[in-house]
């Protein structure tokens, strides 16, 4: 059985994963021991790697087209958070068995997004075992232009793109923990399964934002990474959190805030901007076609997050996603 899997491996790679992206900076792509890539002069290389595991990051029966999209999208979101230009990707697939229909669907979702952002698949691996997907994306930045988590200063505004908590709402719907009204079910499912990396926003923020990251593990937990790295405190206005119509139609205000702050899989950007750049921010992001909202400000005090409701302190449990919470 094992020998049969590996006999088929190279045929699968040749048929489904060996593509010509047309990128001239790919000197050698799939098919040799290493990829050879031409990195432009006076640029920095940005690299990010994520693993998605069946039963942990996605349902085992998730549509493979959606899974292919999401596997690449969540990695591209990291490049967006740095303001990088996506260029190359490598992919390692662990499959329990050869299922060509599944592989074809996965590739359809993966390569559609790769083509949209002109990203070339340059290598990877395939093996047998419990279903998991490891993606490593590579991008480039002009020297000195990378966005970082450090850099937020007192007086900066705190902003997010899009709306928050919709993917978490979609997950609760899928788990049967709550019922989303029928008109919004497809919307929240798409938010969970088809995130859109904010590549253009990240690039537009290079000369504007003082810090940035993508929201993958919940706004509260991720924003705290900025606060810790920058050594600053934040005041967050709960009433300013951008909530979708699907969210407000499905849960109470308190529940909506909980999902927006603690829910994962948003893949929106959170960033800080000095007040003097507010006009520049509005102009730059108007060309990206992405909604953005100021949700708070950087203030004085020990690093940490302070919640306000109509200007008054408000207490609520805050926690980001942690794979090892509760593990012995």
UniProtKB/TrEMBL annotation:
Mg(2+) 3 binds at residues 33, 78, 214. PANTHER family: THIAMINE-MONOPHOSPHATE KINASE. HAMAP family: TMP_kinase (MF_02128). Mg(2+) 5 binds at residue 217. It is an enzyme of class 2 (transferase). Keywords: ATP-binding, Kinase, Magnesium, Metal-binding, Nucleotide-binding, Thiamine biosynthesis, Transferase. Residues 31-139 form the PurM-like N-terminal domain. ATP binds at residues 124-125, 149, 216. It catalyses: thiamine phosphate + ATP = thiamine diphosphate + ADP. Its EC number is 2.7.4.16. Reaction mechanism of ThiL seems to utilize a direct, inline transfer of the gamma-phosphate of ATP to TMP rather than a phosphorylated enzyme intermediate. Belongs to the thiamine-monophosphate kinase family. GO terms for molecular function: kinase activity. It comes from Zobellella aerophila. This is Thiamine-monophosphate kinase. Mg(2+) 4 binds at residues 33, 48, 78. The lineage of its organism: Bacteria, Pseudomonadati, Pseudomonadota, Gammaproteobacteria, Aeromonadales. Catalyzes the ATP-dependent phosphorylation of thiamine-monophosphate (TMP) to form thiamine-pyrophosphate (TPP), the active form of vitamin B1.
């Amino acid at each position: 059985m094992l020998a049969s899997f590996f006999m088929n491996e190279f045929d699968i790679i040749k048929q489904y994963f060996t593509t010509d992206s047309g990128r001239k900076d790919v000197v050698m792509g799939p098919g040799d021991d290493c990829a050879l890539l031409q990195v432009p002069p006076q640029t920095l290389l940005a690299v990010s790697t994520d693993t998605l595991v069946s039963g942990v990051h996605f349902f085992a029966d998730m549509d493979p087209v959606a899974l292919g999209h999401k596997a690449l999208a969540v990695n591209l979101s990291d490049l967006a958070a740095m303001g990088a230009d996506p260029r190359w990707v490598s992919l390692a697939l662990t499959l329990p068995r050869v299922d060509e229909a599944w592989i074809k669907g996965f590739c359809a979702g993966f390569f559609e997004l790769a083509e949209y952002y002109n990203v070339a698949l340059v290598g990877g691996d395939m093996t047998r075992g419990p279903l998991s997907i490891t993606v490593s994306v590579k991008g480039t930045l002009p020297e000195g232009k990378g966005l970082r988590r450090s850099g937020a200063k007192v007086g900066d505004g705190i902003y997010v793109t899009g709306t928050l908590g919709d993917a978490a709402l979609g997950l609760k719907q899928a788990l049967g923990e709550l019922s989303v009204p029928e008109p919004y079910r497809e919307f929240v499912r798409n938010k969970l399964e088809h995130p859109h990396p904010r590549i253009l926003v990240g690039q537009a923020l290079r000369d504007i934002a003082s810090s940035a990251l993508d929201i993958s593990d919940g706004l509260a937990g991720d924003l705290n990474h900025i606060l810790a790295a920058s050594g600053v405190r934040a005041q967050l206005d709960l009433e300013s959190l951008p909530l979708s119509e699907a969210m407000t139609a499905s849960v109470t205000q308190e529940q909506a805030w909980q999902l927006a702050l603690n829910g994962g899989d948003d893949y929106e950007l959170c960033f800080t901007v000095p007040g003097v750049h507010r006009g520049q921010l509005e102009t730059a992001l108007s060309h990206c076609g992405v909604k953005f909202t100021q949700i708070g400000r950087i203030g004085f005090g020990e690093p940490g997050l302070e919640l306000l409701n109509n200007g008054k302190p408000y207490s609520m449990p805050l926690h980001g996603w942690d794979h090892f919470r509760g593990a012995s």
